[in-house]
Design a protein that fits this description.
two-stranded antiparallel sheet, six-stranded mixed β-sheet, 391 residues, Alpha-Beta Plaits, 2 domains
């Protein structure tokens, strides 16, 4: 089952990344289109005054116009369809255009004898932006491709003007490429963890899923031992009560009662394992779990008083259990062990001993809450007897 869920998860994550990448690419396409449009407008208006030729007659102008035409094509293409390989095709087009524009600017500077600082700054800004845009594609391959391509364009542009300062800037650009690759990996990891938690929340308690920080999927394959307090509750006389009412009313009342009991468990930091018709199985982990379970049980008893004619029986036991998932085609999260069985037996015994709550010796050994000794009783399925307690 875990292999199937992993395959479903990988497929869902891949689809989610494709959708997000497509959205990001469309946003960038509009930004690219707007920036290049404004650049060409400024070029058309200012170029004849600065170099005495029209914008479209110079190499730089023709390159920018060609890049604008490519930007229009990309924007239209992204509205029609999306393919994963676009994450490499589009940056290739941008990289070629950027390299051509920077190379032409480099040639102009060489002919004019201007300082190289401007070329280095322009190349650094353009290539850094190119690399950052590559990272929004959310794929490590696309990010590395854009990072290495941007770094190559930068080095090729500043090579004729190389100074000691350019070695530092090249190292900074290399560091930027590495940082973007690391951020892409972290983004994918966080997306996978979020998607995994969403999938596991369909059949695992939310508190359990949220507690699995590193590898939520391990909840399906790795059972664990834990010292907990188990709480069983049962609605007294529920069968007789429900016989006199319609199924709709029974379901409505049961939802209200069980919802109130679950709220008490949650308030004390416990986890509701499952509802068993009119019964509930919950467990408590961590510090002072026995006292918190007793407080939750008391809250459940008080909660039941709001419903006329209904009473709650509660059984508690503390000890070691196994927490994990059972099943192949249908996975069920559960706690197993003698502690669980004993808590269930104690809940059943509340009727015989005329007590609303019974707690086993394990609870008495761990709890700071003062308990009242009720009786020494045999527990079905266990040898010997056990002292049982109540509040």
């Amino acid at each position: 089952m875990s292999d199937q869920i992993k395959r479903e998860l990988d497929s869902a994550l891949d689809e989610a990344l494709n959708v997000e990448t497509h959205h990001n690419e469309r946003v960038v396409s509009w930004v690219r289109l707007i920036v290049l449009t404004l650049t060409n407008v400024v070029g058309v208006l200012s170029h004849p005054k600065t170099v005495n030729i029209n914008w479209w007659e110079g190499n730089q102008g023709r390159m920018m116009l060609a890049w604008l035409a490519a930007a229009v094509f990309i924007a239209v293409l992204l509205r029609v369809r999306w393919k994963r390989y676009y994450s490499f095709v589009i940056p290739t087009m941008d990289g070629l255009a950027l390299a051509a524009v920077l190379s032409n600017g480099q040639a102009i500077m060489e002919r004019s004898g201007q300082e190289a600082a401007w070329a280095g700054a322009a190349a650094a800004a353009g290539c850094a932006l190119y690399m950052v845009v590559g990272a929004i594609r959310l794929r490590i391959g696309a990010t590395l491709f854009a990072g290495l391509t941007g770094l190559g364009i930068y080095i090729a542009t500043i090579l004729p003007f190389t100074t000691s300062g350019h070695f530092t800037s090249t190292a900074a650009m290399l560091g930027l490429a590495g940082l973007l690759a690391w951020l892409t990996v972290m983004t994918q990891r966080l997306a996978k963890a979020r998607r995994t938690r969403g999938m596991l929340s369909r059949f695992l308690p939310q508190s359990v899923v949220e507690a699995a920080h590193d590898d939520p999927l391990a909840l399906l394959t790795q059972a664990r031992n834990a010292d907990v307090t188990v709480l069983f509750t049962d609605i007294r006389g529920f069968t007789a009560w429900s016989e006199k009412r319609s199924p709709e009313n029974v379901m409505k009342m049961l939802n209200e009662v069980q919802g109130g009991l679950a709220a008490e468990v949650s308030r004390q930091g416990g986890t509701v394992d499952k509802f068993l018709g009119d019964g509930m199985l919950a467990f408590f982990e961590g510090a002072e779990h026995a006292d918190r379970a007793l407080a939750a049980a008391q809250g459940c008893l008080n909660s039941a008083e709001r419903f006329a004619g209904l009473r709650i029986g509660a059984g508690l036991q503390s000890g070691e259990v196994v927490i994990g998932c059972l099943g192949q085609h249908r996975v069920e999260f559960t706690v197993l062990g003698d502690t669980v069985n004993t808590a269930s037996r104690l809940e059943s015994m509340t009727k015989d001993l005329d007590e609303e709550l019974l707690a086993g010796q394990g609870v008495a050994d761990r709890a700071q809450t003062r308990l009242r000794q009720v009786a020494e009783v045999p527990i079905r399925g266990r040898t010997g007897t056990m002292t049982v307690y109540s509040l």
